[in-house]
Each structure stands twice: as structure tokens, then as C-alpha cells.
Amino acid sequence: MPRILIIEDEAIIRSALKRLLERHSYTVSEAGSAEEARELTPSEFDLVISDLRLPGDPGTALIEAAAPAPVLIMTSYASMRSAVDALKQGAVDYVAKPFDHTELLETVERILHKQSMQQGTPPDITDEGGGRQTMIGNCTAMQQVYTRIRKTAPADVTVLIQGESGTGKELVARAIHQQSKRAKAPLICVNCAAIPETLIESELFGHEKGAFTGASAARTGLVEAADGGTLFLDEIGELPLDAQARLLRVLQEGEIRKIGSVETRHVDVRLIAATHRDLRALSKSGEFRLDLYYRLNVMQIELPPLRDREEDVLKIADILLDKACKRHDRQGLRLSRASRQDLRDYPWPGNVRELENALERGVILAEGHLIHPDDLGLGPVTNRPHSSAGNSSALANESSAPSGDDDDLSLEDYFQHFVLEHQDQMSETELAQKLGISRKNLWERRQRLGIPRKKTARRPN
């Protein structure tokens, strides 16, 4: 429940506003001045609503103290100048007194919604081996995914994750499970496309001894194994119709019946499903049950493809490259400027999985200390237009690259390649002489390009 702090020196207005907000399920605190508000630690609230004219400091004086909480300014002096001044100082918006109740509530709801979307932080995930990892990406689409995970996880409802292959649907499922009330119970992951159609009902729901040829012993199904926890069905669009009917009964009645058994068993399972296919379209063609689709689609999370996460590509690439270098004992490998540009321009039909494979290939094939485009083995790359903001953040600390294939022969690439190839055999003075620059210039370029100076081993006394 969002917490709101009201700062208003007129008690009647303050009380009326408090009652209005509390009727709409907000938790409200109040103060009569900026000084009183500071004692309540305004930064811990979700929203601060303050009158502009207060005894002592004005309402705008709280904008910095309240950060990161947004400040909505109220004023009886609704001139353009006072509104503009408040916005310039960092107020999120302003309302004029006397304010319309409906308009005020809509403004509050809009601000809080926008704030929640911006507060999406990547969840920490524990993998099957017990290692910790964090979902990577700060683009708007991924922040919305993080927010949806945070809100959905405790709700214990069925979740449908949609996205192309390789976008990280299982990571999202793990994040939801580990932030849910079932976190200490098992998470059972099943790839429906990887199990033969003749065996999938047995795998999911179990069977009794002798239920079919080859059933030499009774078997517990994966749905029952997930009792009390979470069942993640990846590629649920590949589930046969008979298995869909059985799964629908699990969702509707919370019951399973093993193949060959006449007895039913109650199970308490949270279902998370994922698919890259359009289940609604499949239901129209008769390939997927429409009633099951409606049962699955309680809460939906849409994962963006990598080509739509332009500002995240290089960040993901750097982390995956570091892991690949450790696996193959090739520490110190770096991507050339041309390679980095190709990574940004490539459309990535295979998404993060394809990016990981390309970097693995580059680590194995690179002969020097730089990974060049040929080492990555990508298909033809068509340059895409980039916003200036995206370029400046993603290609930080790199000078503008010339277009075309000559990018591999840029001065920055040559400098990186030469230093990394020869720094083990040459001193800093010798490197500078060979490059035709001063030692100071060599040091400055090392700092700018992030090339650490090799530590020389101490000679024994």
C-alpha cells in the first residue's frame, strides 16, 4: 500500500486531503511545515504532497530532502511562473488549489504508477548449482519486467511468460519462484518440447505399474513432485491436447490422477508457463485449448527480444565474455571496436543464447588479445540507426568509429592490439617509443581504453 506524506499548514485542508486519500487505500502521514516533514524522513515515502507556501521553508525546499520520492506541489497561486519554478526545481507536477478531487486522485495514481515502473531493479536468482546471478539490463522494457516480477511473485497466481526463444524465460520463472511464498519448496522445470508426445503424460502426471507396455513400476509425476512449490512448464504450446485436458483439471480442481489409476490426489501447485508461440492463435486452429489458455493467462509477462534492448547488448556481452574467458582460461581478451559495433548492429534472432554462443566462439578463435568480427562468426550485419544517447552510453570511452570494414584498422584498435601483444616483452618506455608517443600519452590512453598495466614480478633477493 503506497505511503504518502502531506505537508500543509492549514489543518482543515490537510485533514480533508488525508481522508480523501485514505478512502482510496493510501497510507497517509501529515506535517504542518517543512521542518516537521524532515523529522518524518520524507525520502521513505512513495509520494510527498506539499503546499508551496509554508511557514519557514517553502514546499520546494523538500524536493532534495525527499529524493528519490517524487514531490507534488500544491499552490493557491497557480500562475505559470510558480508552476514552472516548482518544476524547474525538481517537482514531479503541481496542482492548483482549490483542487478537483478526481483530478488530484488521477494525478497521484499516475505519479505512483510511473514511479513504480522506474523502480524496477534486476532480481537476484539462485541457479541449480547454488550460484547467484542477477538479471542483466536497464532498458525500459526490462525495468517493466522487473516490476512485474516483484508485484506478481507474492500473489501466488498462474503466470504466462511470453517471449522469443533465448530471451530468458526460465530466469524469470526462477525469479518469481524465489520471491514467492513458496521459495523454500521445490521448483520443477519441464521443457514440454523436449519430451516425446507418447511419454509426456506419464512424465507430468505419473503412472501405475502395468499401466502401459514398459511400465514395470509405479512412477510419481512431476506435477506431484512440485506439490507445495512451483511447476514451470516451458514451451507449453507444444503440450498435446490430452495432456492439456489433464493440466486443466489440475488448475481447476487441484487434482491429479496417475495413468492407470482410479484414485485422484490433491496437489497444491503454482503453475508458471512459458511459450514463444501465440496461444490464442493456436486455440483458434484447435491446437491449444481455449479454456486452458484463459486459466494460464491470469498474469502475463512479456520478455523483449535482444534486438529491442539495444542499450543492454554490450553490457550483457561484457559479462558473458568474462565468463567465457574464465571457462577457457583466456583472461585478458577484449572485443575490438569493430566487434562491439557489430554486436550492436546484429539483429540477434537467437537472442541472448545466440550472443553467448558468438562470444564463446570468439574466445576460442581469437589469436591475439582482441576478438575481431571474423572470430565472432556472425552473419551479414546491417547498420541500424542509433540514438545519440544510446551511442554515448553503450560506446563510452571509445572514439567515433569509421564506417565500413576499415574499422578494424582504426588507431584505437591498433593501439590496443600492439600494447596487449608486446607489453610482456617491452617496458613502458620501449612501448611508447615504438608507438611514437610519450610515456605520459601512453598512460593516458591506457586509462581511457581500460588497458591495465602489467605488473612486473619482483626479482628474488
TrEMBL record:
InterPro entries: AAA+_ATPase (IPR003593), AAA_lid_NorR (IPR058031), CheY-like_superfamily (IPR011006), P-loop_NTPase (IPR027417), Sig_transdc_resp-reg_receiver (IPR001789), Sigma_54_int (IPR002078), Sigma_54_int_dom_ATP-bd_1 (IPR025662), Sigma_54_int_dom_ATP-bd_2 (IPR025943). This is Sigma-54 dependent transcriptional regulator. Residues 135-364 form the Sigma-54 factor interaction domain. SUPFAM superfamilies: CheY-like, P-loop containing nucleoside triphosphate hydrolases. The keyword Transcription regulation applies. Pfam families: AAA_lid_14 (PF25601), Response_reg (PF00072), Sigma54_activat (PF00158). GO terms for biological process: phosphorelay signal transduction system; regulation of DNA-templated transcription. It comes from Vreelandella alkaliphila. Residues 384-402 have a biased composition (Polar residues). Keywords: ATP-binding, DNA-binding, Nucleotide-binding, Phosphoprotein, Transcription, Transcription regulation. One of its GO terms (molecular function) is ATP binding. Residues 376-407 are annotated as: Disordered. PROSITE patterns: RESPONSE_REGULATORY, SIGMA54_INTERACT_1, SIGMA54_INTERACT_2, SIGMA54_INTERACT_3, SIGMA54_INTERACT_4. The modification 4-aspartylphosphate is found at residue 51. Gene3D superfamilies: 1.10.8.60, 3.40.50.2300, P-loop containing nucleotide triphosphate hydrolases. Residues 3-112 form the Response regulatory domain.
